[in-house]
Amino acid sequence: MADRMKILRLAACGLLAAPLVFAEPPNFKPGNHGNGSQRSTTGHSDGSTREGGERAGRGERSREDVEQLRKRMQEFCEKHSPRRWAALQENSGNDRNPWKFGGMFFRFRGLMMLENQDKPLYDIKVRQIEIDDEEYGLLKDLRAARASADKAEIDRITARLRELSTEYVASRIDERTHRIASLEKMLKSEQDALASEKSDQKALVDKRVESLLSDNPPHSHGHDKDASPGTPPPHSGPGAPPLADQP
Known about the structure:
Elements: H1 2-16, H2 48-80, H3 82-92, H4 103-117, H5 119-147, H6 151-199, H7 201-213
């Protein structure tokens, strides 16, 4: 599970770190041929104008995607972390640029992916966010109570902080229990696959050799019974399997 989540986080960072600006076509020079497009020595368009338009379209779609994600993050935070969100908005001067939130923006993207990947774990993490947000507000109230020497209010806030801390620690235990159960399930699956491959090792070798000698070489997916992780593509060039089918 830890490895899987690491991959998810990396994928999220890769997605959100994509450039959001328009890019001009390579070697573009304003005014070429009177219309801004370039032509090859054969007199035919080299497609740079079309490619530039496609890049511009992708840039526009990227901005739209990020804006959609910003709206989802705002809705999520207003529901589950309203105190911290209000503080962030106040400190940012209501700047709508999502990058001003830094790591929070990327963490939210990872959380949204977790919702689809592991809903029980997502629910645990959301509750932890809610607890943290209430604690954040209580600590502000505690500073005010201390400033006014309001002992009754200090005692009330302290008691509530203990309740929240008790729930938070319990949720961390639930989270680790859930992660361990997921890892145990994955381990059991790998152990079963290992036992199966060991018992059929000779047959798997014969099958792989037969496939390599045929017009249908085996694809090297990590958990195929006739392929080991990291095996290079069986062949390249014309007739090779498409990249989508290679590791």
